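User: I've been going back and forth on whether these two constructs are worth ordering. Before I decide, could you fold them both?

Assistant: Sure. I'll take them in the order you sent them. The first construct and its structure tokens:
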Amino acid sequence: MQQTNLIISEMDFVRLMAIQPPPDLRAELERAIVIPDDSMKTNIVTMGSRVRYTEHETGNSREIEIVFPEEAEAAAGKVSVFAPVGAALIGLGVGQEIEWDFPGGSTRRLTVVEVIQPEKQAGH
């Protein structure tokens, strides 16, 4: 399987690095392709994106929103970028997959199926 190049916006990169991400996520961010915010494609998982993904081992599909740790709310489907699934998905594009280590020693393969970007405010 080909190495996945993560793509992340400058603003997301700066904010995530400033809040001291866990080592696995930090390593992914350090090798990511950082691009200007206005050049981000809408099919890339960014902070605030809703993402639908499948888990190969179980076949389950789930939709979550990737948020900063202080905004996480499991009942509302808001998953912290510091959580294993949030860290695995950030920076991936539709159709890309990644293998990620989860708590308990398991490794899971996730595939991004759909990305829904937050509505842009008028004038921004």
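The second construct, handled the same way:
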Amino acid sequence: MTLKIHIDESAAPYEQVRAQIAEQARSGALPVGYRLPTVRGLAESLGLAANTVAKAYRALEGDGVIETRGRNGTFVAASGPAAEREAAGAAQAYAERALRLGLTEDQASAAVRDALRAAYER
């Protein structure tokens, strides 16, 4: 991962970090699952305050570009076609599990609709 921060630009440093990571994730330069440096590590390498990088990471996480997995670190999240492939895999696993549980197609579909409604209405 290569980032360049220009202090003399009109964009705030955290915004530059956010925009560059987002662009690299979208372009595939940072592949899905790529582990990002720690906040402190990236801040040191860029000569920025840790809070500046933390703010960029929070914005990226809010946008769904990255995901934090607790102590395991921060990773590039699935998006676009990669997210659709991951969702398709999860749906296939669910369908197989519902079948093993003896649910009818209508029961399995109802469970999915309820879960989606609950998740998207937050």
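Notes on the second construct follow. The beta strands are 35-36, 66-68, 74-76. The chain is about 60% helix and 5% strand.
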